[in-house]
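INPUT
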Amino acid sequence: DAGVIQSPRHEVTEMGQEVTLRCKPISGHNSLFWYRQTMMRGLELLIYFNNNVPIDDSGMPEDRFSAKMPNASFSTLKIQPSEPRDSAVYFCASRPGQQNIQYFGAGTRLSVL
Amino acid sequence: GENVEQHPSTLSVQEGDSAVIKCTYSDSASNYFPWYKQELGKGPQLIIDIRSNVGEKKDQRIAVTLNKTAKHFSLHITETQPEDSAVYFCAASIGRDDKIIFGKGTRLHILP
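OUTPUT
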């Protein structure tokens, strides 16, 4: 299995632009998580889905952030409009239904200038 | 709210010596405690985990101990090797195991 696949690996954009991050979970996994990693705040859970349904979005920082999971094999995290303080590494992770283990993708490094 | 504290933030040990990283958690309902290793440019990877019905678990050179009364758990790495250099994160489950929250991480340096 290729593992969790995230794209792009790096994204550089200007303040005010829309940014879309993509994630393909491991086939057969039914939970998907979006995290943000910064030096100051560490790994923060933004939102997670079970069976494509958003369960907890309490970690989403503002209305500028939104996430969707239209099917079991694809999820997006969108930031509109982006701001410099959104610069971070964003990770997607997936988990099989009967286990606790989360499998992380390689992340997307976002820089907002 | 729920919290996981991790210490130290940085740790340097001589190759071959042991390394210990400690964490505390606040949610008494937590029952799952994973440890992740993150290498440069990669996502975190699970290295070992423990459930609350077990006090200790070992896998080759790594071991984890759990003290539920004190809400402490620790990672022990013996006979450290250069490839052990990485950032290590502890985590604890909250709610009904659907979520885990992470400590801030420990950057481990193995000195030659």
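end of record. Chain B has a mean pLDDT of 94.
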